[in-house]
Amino acid sequence: MFKFVLVAGLLATVAFAAPLTPEEEEDKREMERIQNESAQYSFDSNIDDGINDGTLRREETRDGTKVTGSYSYSDGYVHRTVFYEADENGYRVIKEDTKEIGEGPQFNADGQADVEGSLIGKYSIKLDKDMEDKHYKDIRS
Ligand SMILES: *[C@@H]1O[C@H](CO)[C@@H](O)[C@H](O)[C@H]1NC(C)=O
């Protein structure tokens, strides 16, 4: 009985969801455009777990159709902060700051270092010699 009522209810919902007229579509788009242009928020969060290398930061601000923000996390050998913005033209990374943790990764004779982060687990990296800057390759298979 319950199944029948549920199916009948779903069918009724589909039957009564008539398509919008072009004018209603236009009104809906206009309403959405106004909502988008007046949207505003701002938030941040911060987990300061320096003991377990689990520091996480995030902040974001929206003003109309433009969103800007940043997030920070640890790779186990480097602390990254990524700054971004998003608008009508999509999402873009503006800047990325990296700061080595402690002495940085300790490479063996093969140029490989084993690293570990509380969020990312244990893995190995290799120095990418093709890059001008110090750049590490994650060599998990
Ligand atoms: C409003 O913004 C959303 C994304 O936040 C977008 O998908 C949508 O197309 C926008 N609507 C209008 C009418 O600009």
From TrEMBL:
Keywords for the protein's UniProt record, in alphabetical order: Cuticle, Signal
Signal sequence interval, chain numbering: 1-17
Keyword check for Signal: yes
Biased composition (Basic and acidic residues): 55-65
Protein name: Cuticle protein 21
Annotated segments matching region Disordered: 22-70
Cited InterPro entries: Cuticle_Struct_Prot (IPR050468), Insect_cuticle (IPR000618)
UniProt keyword annotation of NADP present: no
Annotated GO MF terms: structural constituent of chitin-based larval cuticle
Amino acid composition bias (Polar residues), ranges on this chain: 36-45
Organism listed in the record: Drosophila lebanonensis
GO terms for cellular component: chitin-based extracellular matrix
